[in-house]
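Reader question, answered in our methods column.
A reader sent in the components of a multi-part assembly and asked whether the whole thing could be modeled at once rather than chain by chain. We filled in our standard form and ran it. Here is what they sent:
COMPLEX SIZE: two components
ENTRIES:
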Amino acid sequence: MFIRILKETSDELRIEIEGEGHTFCNPLQKILLEDEEVEVAGYDIPHPLFTKTILYIHTKGERKPKTALREALNKLRERSDDFKSAFEKTLKKE
Amino acid sequence: MDIQLIEKTNISMQLVIRGVDVPFMNALRRIMMAEVPSMAVDDVVFIENSSVLHDEVLAHRLGLVPLVTDLDSYNLPEKCTCKSEFGCNLCRVTLTLEAEASESITTIYTGDLKSEDPHITPVSDKIPLVKLAPGQKIKLEAYARLGTEMVHAKWQPVSVCAYKYLPQINIDEKLCNACEECVKICSKKVLVRDENKIVPKNTIECTLCQDCVKVCSSPPAINVAWSDDSYVFNIETDEVLPPERIVLEALNILNRKIDDLLGQLTTKNELLH
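And here is the structure of the entire assembly that came back:
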């Protein structure tokens, strides 16, 4: 994964993520939209043959979009860790 | 979050997962299919091939043979410390095949492949590779390596990897006259008659086709619904890796992606252009 920041203002962030597509961006978008401070969050895959995805976030202005993204990533990490511990617990029961 | 193990064998697993959203489940499914590495033959050097199969056809067949994978001792060639295009013993396994038909037509099976690593072998000895007529000979060296499905489908460790919503079947006893029409129409045999009422037996099998609802008198006594955050998850491998290892590996890959992006967000503060 390699990212490039295309646009960054106090309420808007556009980043290009190379090497990622729906797999990673869809759960991220879902978590970003759960945030009350985020007005718009989404991603766009400009061409199906290239694994370049553009992720964009608009906040309502109170919080920086980068902070919102960082929080969303931490939330996703938490959920993944939750899943892992629940799965390991289930396996141990067997 | 709650995970319940319904069934587990050495090649398949069925789970009921509660308290997750669809994008997360889908990310896991996509990673398991496309990003969990497995072992497959990638390069073949033919020393002799007088069989009726052309070199490239036989090489393709070799590539599709599932090999038992050892993720702990091998590296992905692009991430290997050797940085060599040819590979080293940490990222490449050599399998050799030497066969000749002497008197009668002989079928060459995957069992005839000799691996330099006894842990990396074809999952079955009985996959036919080529038939040789008397006098025909094959001598080749095949190099297996780890790879992902994003490059070629032969590296996909799972054959079935899918989830569906957990079905919820409710039967209104007041409206049901136990006519058994729904029992007859259900292709998955989910509904059974218990004395003078109809009860759902193995709800997990339900495909949510709603045939039982359509066949029921109106208003229907039966209601087939599903919960939005519970799923039945099926995974079946071709024996290259244990199913639970594939799930854990997928979670590790997802975590690595998150950490990678978090790290890059902190280092890249200024606009690059």
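What stands out: Residues 65-93 of chain A form the longest helix (29 residues). The beta strands of chain A are 2-8, 12-18, 38-44, 52-59.
Send us your own complexes using the same form.
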